[in-house]
Write a structure and sequence with these properties.
The protein is mainly beta. The protein has helices spanning 83-93, 104-109, and strands at residues 4-14, 33-46, 49-50, 55-62, 71-78, 112-115, 119-121, 124-128, 133-138, 142-147, 149-150, 157-158, 160-163, 172-182, 188-203, 206-207. The radius of gyration is 16 Å and the shape is globular.
């Protein structure tokens, strides 16, 4: 197993209501799952290959709850990655060189019926986790806009967080509102639905935790 580690930020928008039942071991709001997400790696490596400054994105669809499988995945890898970096990122995204079930990538990989050939494209990634704001653009293939949830009466920003001491993706996620779309092999259109902003830090064995479990 090649040792790897990544530390960075993510923005994910799915079709569920704010809160996302997946975070609470419940069934999806509409009975099926669709999501668009991206991660930028501030610091990372795969063996001796540096992954600093690279980003990846995915468009995902399942006809039912994720755990029932039959999912379709369109991976996108930063165009500026070298061949070695591309190979490393795709191995991480597909759950290779990872303990079974240790990361969200490894878990999701077991639910895919179809993984399309990766797209190599420029990924514009601007995400402020604490402010709950972000914008990700991958040409005409994929776009995500993340914003704070607004109070429907006053219009004030509403802040909520999800704390998962034993999660396989993040420790704390800031929750916001997302609008996004993808085109091509996996078509997704989302408007003002669940979005999560999070700092991530993980390796082959799962999350590297910075907080004591409650």
């Amino acid at each position: 197993m090649t040792p790897w580690e990544i530390q960075g930020r993510e923005l994910i928008n799915c079709n569920c209501s704010y809160g996302c039942p997946c975070q609470f071991n419940a069934l999806p709001t509409k009975g099926y799952c669709e999501a668009i997400g991206a991660v930028t790696i501030d610091r990372g490596h795969y063996g001796a290959v540096s992954l600093d400054g690279l980003s990846v994105a995915m468009a995902l669809k399942w006809p039912g709850p994720i755990h029932e499988g039959k999912g379709h995945c369109q991976p996108v890898v930063d165009a500026k990655a070298t061949p070695e970096q591309r190979d490393a990122l795709l191995k991480i995204l597909s759950g290779q060189d990872t303990d079974p079930g240790a990361t969200i990538f490894a878990v999701f990989a077991t639910t895919y019926e179809k993984v399309f050939d990766p797209i190599f494209a420029s990924i514009q990634f601007q995400v402020d986790v604490e402010a709950r704001r972000g914008r990700i653009v991958v040409g005409q293939t994929l776009q995500i806009q993340g914003d704070p949830i607004r109070n429907p009466i006053t219009g004030d920003e509403h802040r909520a967080r999800i704390d998962l001491p034993n999660g396989f993706e993040y420790e704390i996620a800031e929750i916001g509102s997302g609008t996004s779309h993808s085109r091509g092999n996996v078509v997704v259109d989302l408007k003002e639905s669940y979005a999560q902003f999070a700092h991530i830090h993980m390796n082959n064995h799962g999350l590297i935790r910075h907080r004591s479990a409650a």
